[in-house]
Write a structure and sequence with these properties.
By secondary structure, the protein is an alpha/beta fold. The chain contains 15 helices and 18 strands. It folds into 2 domains: 224 residues, Aldehyde Dehydrogenase, Chain A, domain 1; 188 residues, Aldehyde Dehydrogenase, Chain A, domain 2, CATH 3.40.309.10. It binds nicotinamide-adenine-dinucleotide.
Length: 456
Amino acid sequence: MLDIILSNQREYFNSGVTLDLDFRREQLIKLKEIIERNEEEILDALKFDLHKSHEEGYMTEVGFVLGEIEHTIKNLEKYAMPKKVKTPKAYFGAKSYILPEPYGVALIISPWNYPVQLLISPLIGAMAAGNCAILKPSELSPNTSKVMANLINKNFNNRYVYAIEGDAKVAQQLLKQRFDYIFYTGGTNVGKIVMQAAAENLTPVTLELGGKSPCIVDKDINIEYAAKRIAWGKFLNAGQTCVAPDYLLVDREVKSQLVESIKKTLIQFYGNDPIDSTDYCRIINHRHFDRLALLLQDGNIVAGGRLNREKLYISPTIIDDISLDDPVMQDEIFGPILPVIEYTGLNQAIDMVNSREKPLALYFFSKDKEKQRFVLEHTSSGGVCINDTIIHMTTKWLPFGGVGMSGVGKYHGKASFDIFSNMKSVLKNHYVFDIAQKYPPYKTPIYKLRRLMKFL
Ligand code: NAD
């Protein structure tokens, strides 16, 4: 069955239909209309899966992808245009350019935490670049995955775009097939499995992974704004966000003030008992709930810490007196738990960050430009956001992705078009004259070649 779908898509791709820019534009418009027409159903599904409010669902998923589609449609022609580049003087009269061409059939595997955004956003890039695509949404967000798969399969020619629901076994079956591009979003361990499978056919990959994204807070800040921005980024989607600030490294001079301010903010955001808030999400399933509950055993809980397993609810939690050896500081938390560690000098904070794998995001709060420059120069991460959280990944002009263990490749906006395109280098020569020196038998002495090579 999978091989038939794939060979149908390959045949469709080879027919050249997807090369036409008008076709790509029409299909992107169709995608946008489908999402707009079914917005309510999609938002309801997100509510079922994650208790995501319609407002948060619109802001971080539906509205996000609609904006990406519009931006891509507007810029499609520009993205797809061949880009003229210089040609060495030695080839005078020839022309050179870079011609983006689609890879063919792409596989897109997505996770459960933003099950609309992380399925559709890569698809936009794949379609814009002229590929066919097979989508594998996550089984852990079954309502949203079903709605999205139905919408895709009902409205698109399945020889062009097709969604296959299923669990890890289905994903592994898919990975046994030969694709022309694989785009995976999810955990690092599975990312390695995906890369190994891709290596079999040397298939290019984008791996959008996770990790522990640090949030360093200097003393030179606006406490109220910093607290709000940190609390929003951390507790959005109940902390189940790949770029959520995983832990706080805060200058000891402002630690207690900051923690108090975050606590106050949490009451403003979600009320005295967040279980009653329509704006606060739930943990995706019991496995993740139990994993997170175990992380509450160390340190000193200064806010939250309330659990309701039946409702998959963990209140927004702040834990103080945490050391780097505690279990909560080992793997990505991916839940509403914020450990706080204090530092006494910026170097100490940077050393802590650099003793770990390179994160997907790094946050630094400080008004001090010199310190901002210092942090940028002395740390490595997929992206950086200064004096805020998360918003760097919401702009269409900044490529988004990780580095090292947090991922391979970057997308969003033009970067999405580029990763799904083979940037074909073309040099077009003429018949006006020929350069005799390059042909054997070689008669040109090296001292002359040395001069000639300068024109390359
Ligand atoms: P998940 O369990 O939904 O898995 C992701 C996808 O991989 C699913 O479609 C699943 O079916 C498939 N899968 C699972 N096991 C597999 C296997 N053995 N072989 C092949 N496919 C398999 O999601 P998850 O892994 O729990 O996602 C959470 C992680 O994803 C976190 O680490 C988070 O940071 C990361 N993440 C990264 C980004 C990003 O953009 N960089 C976005 C969201 C999540």
